[in-house]
Amino acid sequence: MRPLTRRDVETFVEHRPPPGLAGYLTCTWQQQVGRTPYAQRTVPNGSVELVWSSGSPVSLVGPQSGPTVSVVAPGTVRVGVRLRPAVAPALLGLPAAELRDLEVGVGTLGGRSTEALDDELARASTPATALAALQRWLLARRADARPLDPVAMEAVRRLSPGPRSGAANEVATIARALSVSERQLRRRVEAAVGLAPKPLQRALRFQRFLALAAATERPSTQLAALAAASGYADQSHLNREAVRLAGRTPRALLLEVEHHCDG
Using one digit for the tens of pLDDT, what is the confidence trace for 210-251? Predict the structure, then answer.
């Protein structure tokens, strides 16, 4: 077997959002697929994304409730922006719940600006120019954005993994702290994020696990420590959640990542 070259492998790079969109985006990203088809596995992250693939219109990718696997054609270039959980209604003008588990054209939002965006991206000569066009479009929408739902935003913050644990992260506790009923909290979080509080909490905790794994050498050999640092009760808890959210055991998933991202 000949050694792999840079052109044979898939590359995926995330960037910090520009200052004007830092409060609205988690990150921006660029992807280049090599000479062979790439089976891309995605897992729930509580976010809505705008994604452009070379030769295609811009898509709105809604929040996922489970894992997906899609085959990306060789040579495909893609760029995207990932919205922070709960900001989609303000920037896009529709409840995130309407996009759950869907991928639709950005033209679904209507208006001349979406047509102009597709036209501009069709002329993009590099991933950087395509990404810049997406960011300019979002900056223009930010100027007319609706107010963010403060209850949903604070609920997302409290549901995110961190030093808080146990009862402080329970939906009932968060609802009392925000002076709303559990029913109202669930309704507002689901409208803003596209997921109910508990599925969102699972997705955010698993994202923390993936982030910690990415910063760990040979993470597939450090599962117990990663489970504890990510907020799981034990490694068995992590195993169950990985199968639910990624369709793989954590070890199988990380070995897959280590293989594709080696070097």
Answer: 999 999 999 999 999 999 999 999 999 999 999 999 999 999
- pTM of the predicted model as reported, rounded to 2 decimal places: 0.88
**β partners of residue 50:** 60, 81
Q: Assess contact for 45 and 64: CB atoms under 8 A.
A: yes
CB 191 within 8 A of CB 152: yes
- Is the per-residue pLDDT at 6 higher than 60? no
| Cα distance between residue 99 and residue 88, in whole Å | 10
Above 50 in pLDDT, residue 1? no
- Residue 180 · residue 149 · CB < 8 Å: no
Nearest CA-CA partner of 100 in 198, 193, 3 = 193
- Residue 211 identity (one-letter amino acid): A
The C-alpha atoms of residue 61 and residue 100 are separated, in whole angstroms, by 8
- Judged by phi (left if over 0) then psi (alpha if -120 to 50, else beta), residue 70 lies in beta
pLDDT tens by residue, 26-54? 999 999 998 899 888 999 999 999 999 98
